[in-house]
Amino acid sequence: MAVKAIFDSKNILIIGGAGFIGSQLADELVKGAKVICLDNFLTGADANISHLYQNANFKFINHDITVPIELEKRPELRDFKIEFQGLQEIYFLASPTSPRAYNNKPIETMMVNSLGLNNALKLAVRYKAKIIYVSSPAVYGETGNKKIKEDYTGSVDQFNPRAVYSEAKRFGETLVANYRSRFDLDAKIVRVFNGYGPKLKLDDGRMIPELIRSALNNKDLVVYGRANDIGSYIYISDLIQALVAMMESGEFGPLNLASDVKYKFSEVASKIVKLTGSRSAITYHNRESLMANQPLADITQIKEKLSWFPITLIDEGLKKTIEYLSAQKGILEPK
Q1: How far apart are CA 238 and CA 210, in angstroms?
Q2: Which CATH entry fits the domain spanning 11-196+232-260+292-311: 3.30.450.180, 3.40.50.300, 3.40.50.720, 1.10.10.10?
Q3: Which partner for 100 in 125, 201, 205, 292 could form a disulfide, CB atoms 3.0-4.6 Å apart?
């Protein structure tokens, strides 16, 4: 009779674990589990995870998930006993997410959300692990500026400059749903709206880091949109708590993961100017081709099903984000 392996903590794989979300998810999970961080630094950064290298419960593997991987054969995972314990949870965050990143790496974006996700789902089937696919509101297509529920289906132009990302995420969700159906897999989907916080890159290209960079350098803040346009922004610690709650739940989703507090673009820009003590002016410009109207999330389902809600106020979140970004080297450009 085979003896069941006994282990004191879960083995958790974070694919895309050196990125903005993945690295801070690792910080949280390593407190009570053994964490395998897999990343090829396409958009992630070694600096995000280097402080964890001396932690016995953390292992990093430099690998491109579009190429299959056999974890049992990796010598650095010997202490995790993958051959006996396997994996219990997989978080899939491996994709460029900012318009600047996926525009520069369009093929890589589509491949990681297809071939890469397929390899991750195969690992989940092999080890009977739970898996979360972190998707995006880009799957909704054009929405205008109204609250969107999870069952909304909008139109997506597959030749639009943003389609490389929206189509990749739409395909990824369909792939996850079919793996769940065919293999009775505990495969979950969340759609993350406008996450921000420490470990964002100054040159990320998204609204908040771009405005902070300009403010810190006393340059005009360029807002793409109108002053009265509305957005919602979720701070990273709230985002991480929601991901963990989703993994521990019996829900499959998709669920909108967002804040339900809305701010005008002018309010966000003004807060950044005030918090940085900047002399910058605020200007408004038409959106570029890669930018779409920001959809607003209806988060009724995630509140009810996970008993979760965001608690970080934007002033507190922006202050922490500014403190982190202002400490990055080379922030002040030469005059």
Answers
A1: 22
A2: 3.40.50.720
A3: 205
